[in-house]
Amino acid sequence: MARLTVHSISSAPEEAKARMEAVQRNNGFIPNLIGVLANSPQALAFYQEIGKMNGTNSLTAEEIEVVQITAAVHNGCDFCVAGHSKIAKLRLKMPAPILEALRNRTAIEGNLKYQALAVFTMQLIDKRGQVSDAELTAFKSVGYSDQNVLDVIMGIALATLCNYANNVAQTEINPELSDYLPNK
């Protein structure tokens, strides 16, 4: 059982109801993360609006998921690992070896950019952005730009909200995501 209230549309604060209704229409269900975030209509708005911006940043859709899955695994958020694994597998058709490497925190064979992106994401999280010159150079040496650096940081900011909210709440995984839990 979650430690924070997981709102339904009917129990949510008035300011969160329209956003929750839109999620229901777009997904066919309301992920429990949305129900948790609805406790703070501003947190829900932050999640959705930054999520939209993150989805149109300078990284590819696959690279965005590399950041999200890496952060979720690194932060111990099974809910987000499951949700982003589902997106990566079904919507983006991410190759299984890449997805499994991300989920298992092992080297991504055959894709230097994704490997560099995953490593840099973890370095940013661990060092609170205070990466070394060598770490920044290594990231940029595979073709990433200054804009990409900032877009990775934006992705981490989004992931941090979700990962920490789920970890504090101990959010239960929706049945629609259970097949994408780690080690499944």
Automatic annotation (TrEMBL):
SUPFAM superfamilies in the cross-refs: AhpD-like
InterPro entries xref list: AhpD-like (IPR029032), AhpD_core (IPR004675), CMD-like (IPR003779)
Keywords: Oxidoreductase, Peroxidase
Keyword Oxidoreductase attached: yes
Keyword DNA-binding in annotation: no
Carboxymuconolactone decarboxylase-like domain ranges (all copies): 41-119
Source superkingdom: Bacteria
GO molecular function: peroxiredoxin activity
Protein name: Putative peroxidase-related enzyme
Organism from which the protein derives: Bisgaardia hudsonensis
